[in-house]
Amino acid sequence: MTKNIMIVGVGGQGTLLASRILGNTVLNEGYDVKVSEVHGMSQRGGSVVTYVKFGDAVHSPIIDKGEADIILAFELLEAYRALPWLKQGGKIIVNRQQINPMPVITGAAQYPEDIEGKLRAVANVTALDALSLAEQAGSAKAVNVVLIGLMAKNTDIPYEKWIETVKTTVPAKFLEINLKAFDLGYHHE
User: Fold this and answer.
1) Tens digit of pLDDT for each residue in 108-133?
2) Does 170 score more than 90 pLDDT?
3) Fewest C-beta atoms under 10 Å: which of 67, 77, 105, 171?
């Protein structure tokens, strides 16, 4: 049985680190893992998508529409954009943060209203203010690890295995903040 996880965010939010923590953890659990990054304008705050597939034998890292078991979204609009990839009965874990894309910044478009409500109308959604938890851990940049922590709680992989991976994946100078961030996400109600 293959698990398909789509990580979506905006450039600079740490989707790559999140996919590394996830990928390394499931690899250490003995799964075959494929990770693929699909960049938008990541250097300019554009959409960034990472696919993580794992199971007994995974042949392609690409997740097609209607195949994602979990969408891990670092921002509301990115969750909404990724919705077509969610499979029936899949789960969305989303940070309530709103980051205005360039068309909104320039005034060419408006940020859609009540995205969380629209997501809840069609999917199983867990939404949280991951930015506040990241700041509580010591850095606004730890939103990614807060979200990975929350997602980890929804897996069969023991907490200790996730912590081991965070310790071996995150640079030493950011480790303490990221361990706190993971913990806050994992234990979030």
Assistant:
1) 999 999 999 999 999 999 999 999 99
2) yes
3) 171
- Torsion, CA 163, CA 169, CA 172, CA 178, rounded to 10: -50
Instruction: Output the CA–CA distances (angstroms, integers) from residue 20 to 52, 69, 163, in the order listed.
Output: 9, 18, 13
Which of these, 29, 124, 108, lies nearest to 70 by C-alpha position? 124
Q: What is the pLDDT of residues 22-58, one digit of tens each?
A: 999 999 999 999 999 776 655 566 788 999 999 999 9
For 79, the 3-state DSSP assignment is helix
Give the number of domains in the chain.
1
Question: pLDDT band at 12, cuts 50/70/90?
Answer: confident
pTM of the shown model: 0.94
The continuous run of DSSP H or E covering 113 comes out as: none
Would the pLDDT of 160 be above 90? yes
Q: Please, what is the Cα angle at 53 between 84 and 159, to 5 degrees? A: 110
Q: What is the residue range of 87's domain?
A: 3-186
Residue 175 sits in a domain of what CATH number? 3.40.920.10
